[in-house]
Amino acid sequence: MTVFGLWYDFRNPDPERPFGAFYQEVLEQITWAEQQGVGSVWLTEHHFCPDGYSPSPFVLASAIGQRTSRIRIGTNLIVSPLHDPVRLAEDAATLSLLTGGRFDLGVGQGYWEREFAAFGQRLVNRPSLLEEGVDVIRRAWAGDASGFHGKRYDLAEGLAVTPRPETVPRLLVGAMAEPAIARAARIADGFLSTQNAHQQAYLDACAALGKADPEIYAGQWAVVAEDPERTWAAIGEHALYQLNEYISWGAFGPPDAVPRFTDPQQILDAGAYVLMDAAQAVAEYTALLRERPQIKDVHFWAQLPGEPVDSGSARIEYLTTKVIPQLHERL
């Protein structure tokens, strides 16, 4: 059965809202969302952002794990080239133990030059840092005693990290460019997709490799509400801020070459966000999930940067009462 979940970046661009109170409010929302039937929570990572974009997803995942009992917790995603892969393996193993095996580690190669410079890495080395890092993490979870000798990492000692996970986390990889998608098909347990745009490319790459049972974890840029146009009128400026920040960091190509959005309507016209009411969402996702049964998880932004948490909670309640039950029934 497909899991339906929420996506969090913990961004707080409102200077009047203290971060401590904001964290507590969001953690309470997640606890409540589990009771409403939400099946997963996904956390993402960036650094040095004035709005506090979550720099420490593992700490947040631990807090969520201690407040919940059933919900799966994952990262979509950790910028793994910024981290020591052995530490990533240790932290993910610890989270798996703390949550009774509910944690999945999603990683990607990243794109923001400022982050790479600050952590002493080079953008040009992203592919090999990601791929070797994934290999190191797997060896560490398996208790491999042979060490690792690669282009980016040279570890003479064994990688038998302790404590080892009792349930090995799924190791998922996100990608958007064709070579990165092919790499994800080769090295990952599953694919973190964005806006469903690259799923077929991933499935084709898996088929070319003869890889059976590919899995997709699908992040959505969609607003699902009873009156989506009215909701967009209230929150569209938050989406404008969100997307233009990503563009300025280089998420969709060189920042100087990608134009910023000028108003919320332009975002809709470009298809960067889609608006749906319950009937439209049920029809859309029923068709998608029947066409691509490889999709194991569909998750939506809980709230946009600067949007009140209560506003996000209203959409979560709408999803859990008007959309998700109908989808489960149809599927």
CATH class: Alpha Beta
Q: Total number of β-strand segments? A: 13
Rough outline: globular
Please estimate the helix content: 40-55%
CATH superfamily: Luciferase-like domain
What is the beta-strand fraction?
Answer: 15-25%
N-to-C CA distance:
8 Å
N-to-C order of helices and strands: EHEHEEHEHHEEEHEHEEHHEHEH
Largest sheet: 8 strands, parallel, barrel
| Count of discrete alpha- or pi-helical segments spanning 4 or more residues | 11
Q: Which class of secondary structure composition applies to the elements?
A: alpha/beta
Rg calc: 19 Å
User: pLDDT under 50 segments (min length 5)?
Assistant: none
Describe this structure in words.
- This protein has 331 residues and is of the alpha/beta class.
- The chain has a single domain, classed as TIM Barrel.
- It contains 11 helices and 13 strands.
- It has helices at residues 19-36, 57-67, 85-98, 113-118, 126-142, 178-187, 199-209, 228-249, 264-270, 278-291, 309-330; strands spanning 3-8, 40-43, 72-75, 78-79, 103-108, 148-149, 154-155, 171-174, 190-194, 216-220, 222-224, 274-276, 295-301.
- The protein has an 8-stranded parallel β-barrel, surrounded by 4 helices. It has a two-stranded antiparallel ribbon with strand order 6-7.
- Helix 1 (19-36) runs parallel beside helix 11, helix 2 packs parallel to helix 3 (85-98) and helix 10 packs across helix 11.
- The longest helix has 22 residues, at 228-249.
- The N and C termini lie close together (8 Å).
Short description:
By secondary structure, the protein is of the alpha/beta class.
